[in-house]
Amino acid sequence: MGWDPGEVLQMAERIPWIRDLHLYEEVGSTNDIARDLGEMGAPEGVVVLADAQRAGRGRAGRSWWTPPGMALAVSILVRPRRPPEDWPQLTMIAGLAAVESIEAVGCPAGLKWPNDIMIPPDRSRTTPASAWRKAGGILVESVPPAFAVVGIGVNVNTPLEAAPPELAEILGSIRETVGHAVPRLMVLESLLRAFARLYIEWDRGASMLERWAARLIMLGQPVRIHAAGGVWEGVAESVSAEGGLWLRLPDGRREYFLAGDVSLRWS
């Protein structure tokens, strides 16, 4: 079932920070539409929401599956007052907001560096981090110093049995974890409220680093990092305010990675 325009409009009116909301039945990418609006001078607080995406994407152009009526596909236009070197923390804000919105409907949630939204296969909080599944992702596209688009995708009621074969082993959805369907509008409103609150706090000078680090399920865990220069194995030790990851290698040395075209997997 698609979004009810009246309910979505009422939801947006309950969040004063939202300046305008553009609702679509299906788009190529909500990020592309939000970027076009930004280039046309749209104000901060514009939200683009779609029931389905044909060409949703993550980092490095990787595809993201958004079937109709089942997931969140939302992009938010921001015009930060902070310098562009601080903008990597927009990913942190989005991740924290996503975790808060998922937990609000009774589903445990966490984050995997650099931009994955993770949930366990069931409600147990004792499930090993390596068994958690990807329930969503974040894609921030910046046009400094003018604006940035924060794209967030979350599998709310997505039927995993219908997932493309290449995604079936890694995807999770809130419905699968909690055992019943969840109102998408409830998750969306919680997400946008949390994002607005955290963004305002950050834009006034606060750091999101400690809160973000506390939600990263791979810190302290053995991981493997695939980057352009090769493959590194070690323990995910800590993260920086720029969103980078410090990896402790078996010989005691440390390597530093920025997000870019890097992927992290469990060892």
UniProtKB/TrEMBL annotation:
It comes from the Bacteria. GO terms for cellular component: cytoplasm. GO terms for molecular function: ATP binding; biotin--[biotin carboxyl-carrier protein] ligase activity. InterPro entries: aa-tRNA-synth_II/BPL/LPL, Biotin_CoA_COase_ligase, BPL_C, BPL_LPL_catalytic, Transcriptional_repressor_C. Transmembrane segments: none annotated. Its EC number is 6.3.4.15. It holds the Pfam family BPL_LplA_LipB. Residues 20-203 form the BPL/LPL catalytic domain. Keywords: ATP-binding, Biotin, Ligase, Nucleotide-binding. This is biotin--[biotin carboxyl-carrier protein] ligase. The lineage of its organism: Bacteria, Bacillati, Chloroflexota, Thermoflexia, Thermoflexales. The gene is birA.
